Amino acid sequence: MKSLRARILWSMMLVMVFSVVVTVGFCSHIVYRMLVDQTKNQLLLQLDKAVSILEGGSPDDLEPSDLTLRFKNHQFNADFYVVDASGIVAAASNEDFIGNPPVLQLSKEYGRDMLQGNKVMYVLQKTEGYTVVLYTPEKILKRMFNEALLLVFASITVSSLILYVIGFLLIWKITRPIVKLKEAVNRYDPYRGLLTVTRVGATEIDELMLTLQSMSGRIRNHHEHQIDFLQNVSHELRTPLMSIQGYANAIKDQVVSQEKGLSIITEESYRLIRMVDRLLELTRLENPELPHEEQPVDLNEMASQASELLSTNAADQGVQITWTKREVIIMVAAEQLFQLLINLLQNAIRYAATEVRISFGTDKEGWFLAVEDDGEGVPAEWQNRIFDRYFKGESGQTGLGLSICRRIAESLQAELKYEASELGGARFSVVKSKIV
Asked: Which keywords does UniProt give here (predicted)?
């Protein structure tokens, strides 16, 4: 596969070849027309001279040297013959024509004809008792035309080569940083830190380099977060697994009762399942082709179902879930929005003191759904990181909850925001604006 540099150079070469061919074609046409017009003017000028000689003397007074055709860097004599009143050639530059009928049977005062197998340009004028014909072979014009065309072609070719060399050097200079950047990207390893790039002074390329450098930083951060996440998950998974193993051995050694041991093993098994489900949920949300079928949803009914589902958990924490009951119907992917609401409620119940409030509504801009609590809120230094994957607060579990919520909101083409709540804690709101 050809490189970008090679493609640009080949494209530039094809453009230049095409330009040379078209330019030479136009120039050849123009130069030839100019030579034809100049030849015609020269023939007419010498025709007037020949007529003047005849009017002051006889046909024998005409000589080819009297009828000179002058061009730039070229000079030659025009051929002629003079036909008398009887239709016989009385004088001619070619002595073979004298005493014979004219070889050209002409009806126009100017034109082209064939003479002894050669194309000629001619002019004629009838005077009292004579017809004067001046002509010149077109091969003389073609010789001058070829010389002029060769000069034009040479000048255009040299100019094109100079432009090509300049373009080659410019393209080489422009693409050289890209080649270096490609090499740097090929050598890039997240373990080595940021991608090292050097600015070249070209705005677009510098922007590309800075973008790739920024991307390398994000990749490194993602890589570090993955390592932290794997360590956290390993720790979180190891804890219930050790509990299960420990109580299984305790039951075997009859250190604890079967009922107590099995109860703890069951609880820790459920904890493992929840963690694995979270991981599978996040993986599923990363799929860009995940189908979302919108349908009418009553937010009041959804809030009621979610609060009822989590009522036991809320009661255990001494938290009450409240909302203003009113009918608000929107078009949305119901399953995804319900899952998002459940996740936000679980998070709010964990941090609330006594109350979790659900609010929702619509306006001309779209709709919103918010969950807030009366806890301590999110510390200022964490507010820019709470939606990052693998970030876990003091009471967090896997660091995936809010990251999953954000991905669900994005799949709904909505935005998940954080702000301080009037209750004193945190307020997380899902806002969907209408697309105009």
From this structure: ATP-binding, Kinase, Membrane, Nucleotide-binding, Phosphoprotein, Transferase, Transmembrane, Transmembrane helix, Two-component regulatory system
